[in-house]
Structures are given as structure tokens and as C-alpha cells.
Design goal:
The complex is a heterodimer of chains A (about 160) and B (about 500).
Chain A: H1 3-26, H2 30-60, H3 76-96, H4 98-113, H5 118-139, H6 150-153
Chain B: H1 2-13, H2 16-34, H3 40-47, H4 56-81, H5 92-138, H6 143-159, H7 165-179, E1 182-183, E2 190-191, H8 205-222, H9 243-246, H10 250-265, H11 271-285, H12 297-321, H13 327-338, H14 352-376, H15 380-383, H16 388-407, H17 410-428, H18 434-456, H19 463-466, H20 468-483, H21 486-502
Antiparallel strand pairs in B: 1-2
Helix pairs in contact in B: 1-14, 2-4, 2-14, 3-4, 3-8, 3-13, 4-5, 4-12, 4-13, 4-14, 5-10, 5-12, 5-14, 6-7, 6-18, 6-20, 7-18, 8-16, 8-17, 10-11, 10-12, 11-12, 13-18, 16-17
Classes of the chains: A mainly alpha (about 160), B mainly alpha (about 500).
Chain lengths: ~160, ~500
């Protein structure tokens, strides 16, 4: 994706965000609306400046694309899959329980990333989950949802 | 009064739990810093929830010690595998790795450790003396001055951010915008909450911090194929240096430490700026410039003294004014807020017990860093071998549990992830994240002080110019904005050209 396009897409995000705050503030009492209105206006000005700056850089030929050299290339499918995997992991925790979701997430991620051999993947995932249990549940007394493991942890 | 508080802090830090927290924090920082690609900021963000169970002074002391330990830890990876453990150790590679390649890895690490120790001690002394005095002045500030201080902090951190000043300021403005989410502290009406009750108390910025600093890092670690790195696998010589080797380095230690302290004080500039600044100055002052880049001890001493000296320097505006000097100190400030301690000039008065314990913890962590550095540096060789992919997944797991731990709320885990994705895209566009964080922290203070000031002046903005302190601070803010514009750059260049022609 081109340098300018990336900046334009980010500008669309910031302008959209700014517009939400600006319009919502319009219907608020002036005391509450004052500060967000000023900041939203500032966001519009700075966004426009950022796009102009990007445009000038491209015209001067100094716009830097994300990846210049082949060895620097970002593995987009890997990044997207990993982010999706993390989103699913976060979604599943309240449903199946933290200590079920975590080892599964670690095993799938390590296997997908080819980080370690099968035995080491299992070992690291289980040991890390146990470490988290002792740190956050046993030591910090955090009420972590156990989900499917609930019957085993009922006292 | 100040002396009483200093003594109070000293007594507090010497209690068993606090000493243990400082020792453990320094050790943790050392190991995390040694892992290539993991920054001190990320280490503090991830470990922040772990400190909840402690008393505020114990938790904050531990976080500050992680910061100090990670600054030295970063040099271990730089010297042994030519990859900076933290961005602040980037300049250490230039001379650290060639020295290690010559079979003097222990000597290189010894110079780095001693320089880090001296830099840390000098900056701690500055922190212990300057912060209380500055805090004493700041406590007299009213809403008008506080507004000006916050505006100055925002403009400096935005305009001095690496890369484009416009992007830095935009990131800061986004942070300010996010800070307005939640119940308005003046009118009590909910603002921009999307009708979601979880947002009524605002965006919990520790959650945002964990996401912004850790998730992009986790993605960065897996986004490219891991390349095989050249490494030095053995430390055969001694880390503890003899006095005859330390003595010639002392002027470099002191000069670089002062550079680190003053760079740290300026919001927006941190260890990564200071290390290059100090390296260049050391080279400029040296009679043997040729040796730089080939394993010169001065080339290791300068950046390492500077990056540890940044810790104390960055904490000066954080503690005395409530304006974080770096991303790491922003997280420390977040740690204070989690314990119910609000940033601002009252840190030195109302919360003197916690604040002065923190000042002493920074001082003491240098001694622990030195001792643990001698004992554990060799063990850190194993840490530098951990694969990026293994680290990345572990970071995600820790982020999820850490953001849940803050309020036992899964909505915040999703929020953390959302901020993480935002942080990743910002990183790809080279938009700095630190101003966003500072905006999130200072937003409420700016909002309230603006409202109070305008109430005092019955709506007149002239109040900010009629007050001399505020006028001066706002003038400096305006100047920092102007000097970051391309027009100013062109004007300076044309002046230089003209003066060159005149000569």
C-alpha cells in the first residue's frame, strides 16, 4: 500500500473520530462541550496538515513505503491471522474459561508460527499457564473465569 | 519540610518489603531488558497489574526499579548479539559488539554496568534535589498556571517527538480527545460513552497503555522472518573492572550522565535520544576518534551512562509537575493513578510518603543493579536466545490477563486490544505513541483547569496572558511549536547560508 494511501486511510479514521466528538459535543451543555470541541477542531487541522505533509513527501520522492527491501517485507497473512487468532482468544475466554483458552491459544499460535517443536510447544504452553495461575490466581487472588474447569476449582 | 519528607522516604524505602520490591524489580528489568526487542516501557506496562497487591509505595518502587534495571539490561543484548535489548541501547552496539568479538565481552559489559551505575546515581541525586524544589514551586500553581504547564508539556512532547512534529501533535490531540470520554467532572454528564456503562468512568488509561505499548510489540516480533544473528556465546573475562580501567572513563561518565539528565527532563525525549547525543559528544571530546566503532571503551561508557541518567531526569517533570518525561514515566504515573494518586504538583505534598519512597527507590535500585549485574549478567546470555515468536505469544497472554486484572472486566481486555491495533498502525505510519499516552493522562487536568480558569475570568481567554507565569509558559509552548515547523527550518537554513556567504 502506498505511503500516501496509508496516511489518507489514517486521516479518514481520525476525521471520523473527530467528527463523532464534534457532533456529540454540539448537543451538550457548553461547559461540557468546550474542551472536546477545541480538541476535535485541532484534530481536523492536524489531520489535514499530516495529509499535506505526506503529499509533499511523495511529490519530493521522499515518501517511504512500508517495506523497501525484500528481506524487510512484512508477512501480512501471518500478521492478519495472528491478530484474528488473538481476537478469537479474547472472545473465548469468558465462554470456555481462561485456563482452557490460554493453552489452546498458545499451542495453536506456536504451531502456526512454527516457533518450537511439538513437545516444547506443549511444555511451554502448559508451564506458562501454570505460571499464570500461580501468579494471578494464587498470589494476586484474581477472580479469573474458569469456564469449563469451574467444577474442578470449586471449593 | 522537604528534609522531613526526604527522611520519611528513606525510612520507608529501607523497610523489608520495599527493599525486596526494589531488588526484585531491578532483577526483572535486567532480564526483560536483555531480551531483544522488549523495551523498558513494555516491561513496566505488562508488569503494572502485578503490583496491585502491594502498597502504593512498594508497587511504584518496583516499577521504577524495573525501568532502571531494563536500561542496563538493554546493553547485554547490544553487546552480545548486536541487537539492542531496548531502543536506548542502540548506540552501545557500535563499540560494545566489536569489543565482545575481540573476546572482551566481560570487559564491555563491565564498562556498561559501571557507566549505568554512575549515570543512575548522578540522575538520582538530581532527582532527589531538583524535584522537591521544583515541586515546592509547582504547588503554588493555580488552575491558570496548571493549564499552561499542561499545554507546554503537550506541545513539547508532540513537537520533539522523533519524526514529524505534526504527527506527534496529532497523536497528542487524539490522546486528549480520548481523555474526554466518561463522566464530565464539572457538569457530571456522561460524554462520548456510546451508552456503554463501562466507559462512564472514562477510558482506563493503564488498559490503553498496555495495549499501545505491548500488542504492537508482540505483532512486530512475528511480522518478519526471524533472521539468524551473529552472537557472542561466551563471557570468559571478568565483568568487575579494576580501578585503573575505570579512572580514565570518569569524565565520560560524568559528561554523559549530565547529558542524560537534561535530555530526560525535556518531555518527549528519552534514552534513545540521549544515548546518541552522549555518544557523539564522547567522540567529539576524544583524542582518538578513530577508535570509535572499533570497540572503544568510551563508546560504550557514554551511551550507557546517558540512558540510565535519563531515568532520574525524566522523573523530574513527572513528579514535580505531573508531566511525564518519557513513555516509561507515563506508565509509572499510571501506576500511581491506579493506587488513587492523582498526577500533579500535589504528588510532593499530599502523597509525599509514596513520592519520596519512589525517589529513594530509584537511588537504591542503582546499587541493586550493580550487584545483580555482576551476579546475573552471565545468566542473561540464555535470555537473549529466546525466540521472538515464543516471546510474542507470551506477551499477548500477559497483556490479556494484565488488562483483565485492573478491574476484572472483559470489556477492558477488548479495549486494550483495540488500542493495541491502533498502536500498531500508528507505528507503521511512524506516528509516535508517547504523545497519545501523555494526552490521555493530561487531558482531564487540562479540561478542568481550562474550565476553572475561564470561570475565574468570566469567560475571558486573556487570563492566560495576564498571568506572568502562564504567559511565559505559553510563549515557550508557542516557540516549541514554531521551531518544529518547516517554515522555521527553512528560515534557519537561509540565515545560516547568508551568514556563511557574509564570511
Amino acid at each position: 500500500m502506498g505511503y500516501l494511501v496509508q496516511h489518507v486511510l489514517f486521516a479518514v479514521f481520525t476525521v471520523g473520530l473527530g467528527l463523532y466528538f464534534f457532533i456529540k459535543a454540539f448537543f451538550m451543555p457548553s461547559t461540557a462541550a468546550h474542551f472536546p470541541t477545541i480538541i476535535a477542531s485541532l484534530v481536523f487541522i492536524l489531520t489535514a496538515s499530516m495529509v499535506v505533509e505526506a503529499l509533499r513527501k511523495v511529490r519530493r520522492g521522499s515518501g517511504v513505503p512500508i517495506s523497501k527491501a525484500p528481506e524487510e517485507k512484512i508477512l501480512v497473512p501471518r500478521v492478519v491471522s495472528y491478530v484474528a487468532l488473538t481476537a478469537v482468544y479474547i472472545f473465548l475466554i469468558p465462554r470456555i474459561g481462561y485456563f482452557v483458552a490460554t493453552p489452546i491459544f498458545m499451542i495453536i499460535s506456536y504451531s502456526y508460527l512454527r516457533a518450537l517443536g511439538t513437545f516444547k510447544i506443549l511444555l511451554v504452553s502448559i508451564c506458562f499457564s501454570i505460571f499464570i495461575y500461580f501468579l494471578f490466581v494464587w498470589f494476586l487472588k484474581l477472580p479469573i473465569p474458569m469456564g469449563l474447569l469451574e467444577p474442578f476449582f470449586e471449593s | 519540610m522537604i528534609l522531613d519528607n526526604i527522611l520519611l522516604g528513606l525510612t520507608s524505602v529501607l523497610s523489608g518489603y520495599n527493599l525486596l520490591a526494589v531488588a526484585a524489580g531491578t532483577g526483572l528489568g535486567l532480564f526483560v531488558g536483555a531480551m531483544p526487542g522488549l523495551s523498558a516501557t513494555m516491561a513496566i506496562a505488562i508488569l503494572l497489574p502485578v503490583t496491585f497487591v502491594f502498597k502504593p509505595e512498594t508497587g511504584i518502587s518496583m516499577l521504577a526499579s524495573i525501568y532502571m534495571g531494563a536500561m542496563y539490561g538493554g546493553s547485554i543484548a547490544a553487546i552480545l548479539i548486536r541487537t539492542p535489548g531496548t531502543p536506548a541501547a542502540a548506540a552501545t552496539i557500535l563499540d560494545g559488539y566489536p569489543m565482545a568479538q575481540r573476546g572482551e565481552a566481560g570487559r564491555a559489559l563491565g564498562i556498561s554496568l559501571t557507566a549505568s551505575f554512575v549515570g543512575g546515581i548522578i540522575s538520582s541525586l538530581f532527582l532527589l534535589t531538583v524535584a522537591p524544589v521544583l515541586g515546592g514551586i509547582a504547588v503554588m500553581f493555580g488552575p491558570v498556571e496548571l493549564f499552561a504547564v499542561a499545554v507546554l508539556g503537550m506541545t513539547i512532547i508532540g513537537s520533539l517527538s522523533q519524526g514529524s512534529a505534526i504527527k506527534g501533535l496529532l497523536a497528542g490531540s487524539l490522546g486528549l480527545l480520548f481523555s474526554t470520554v466518561g463522566m464530565d467532572s464539572v457538569t457530571g454528564i456522561p460524554r462520548f460513552t456510546l451508552g456503554n456503562i463501562n466507559l462512564f468512568s472514562g477510558i482506563p488509561f493503564t488498559v490503553a497503555l498496555i495495549g499501545l505499548f505491548s500488542i504492537p510489540q508482540a505483532i512486530r516480533l512475528i511480522e518478519k522472518e526471524e533472521s539468524l544473528v551473529e552472537r557472542v556465546n561466551l563471557i570468559t573475562d571478568r565483568i568487575l573492572l579494576p580501578w585503573r580501567e575505570i579512572r580514565p572513563l570518569i569524565p565520560t561518565f560524568i559528561r554523559s550522565s549530565l547529558i542524560g539528565v537534561f535530555t530526560g527532563i525535556i518531555p518527549g525525549t528519552g534514552g534513545d535520544t540521549a544515548c546518541w547525543f552522549a555518544y557523539n559528544e564522547a567522540k567529539r571530546a576524544s583524542d582518538d576518534k578513530e577508535s570509535f566503532g572499533k570497540g572503544s571503551p568510551y563508546g560504550i561508557a557514554a551511551p550507557e551512562a546517558a540512558n540510565n541518567a535519563v531515568v532520574g531526569g525524566a522523573l523530574i517533570p513527572t513528579i514535580s509537575l505531573g508531566i511525564p518525561g518519557s513513555s516509561s514515566t507515563a506508565i509509572l504515573l499510571g501506576g500511581l493513578m491506579i493506587h488513587g494518586i492523582m498526577p500533579g504538583p500535589t504528588l510532593m505534598t499530599e502523597y509525599a510518603g509514596v513520592t519520596y519512597t519512589l525517589l529513594w527507590a530509584i537511588f537504591l535500585s542503582n546499587f541493586f543493579m550493580f550487584a545483580e549485574g555482576i551476579l546475573f549478567t552471565k545468566a542473561c546470555i540464555f535470555v537473549t536466545r529466546i525466540s521472538n515468536k515464543v516471546l510474542s505469544v507470551a506477551i499477548v497472554v500477559l497483556c490479556v490477563i494484565g488488562s483483565f486484572a485492573i478491574n476484572n472486566n472483559f470489556f477492558e481486555v477488548g479495549l486494550m486490544f483495540g488500542f493495541g491495533i491502533l498502536g500498531y498502525f500508528m507505528d507503521k505510519l511512524k506516528i509516535p505513541v508517547a504523545p497519545l499516552v501523555v494526552g490521555l493522562i493530561l487531558g482531564r487536568m487540562l479540561d478542568v483547569s481550562l474550565h476553572q480558569s475561564l470561570l475565574m475570568s468570566q469567560g475571558s481567554w486573556m487570563i492566560f496572558l495576564e498571568n506572568p507565569i502562564s504567559a511565559v509558559l505559553l510563549f515557550i509552548a508557542l516557540f516549541s511549536l514554531i521551531q518544529s515547523t518547516p517554515i522555521y527550518g527553512r528560515w534557519r537554513a537561509s540565515r545560516r547560508k547568508k551568514s556563511g556567504e557574509a564570511r
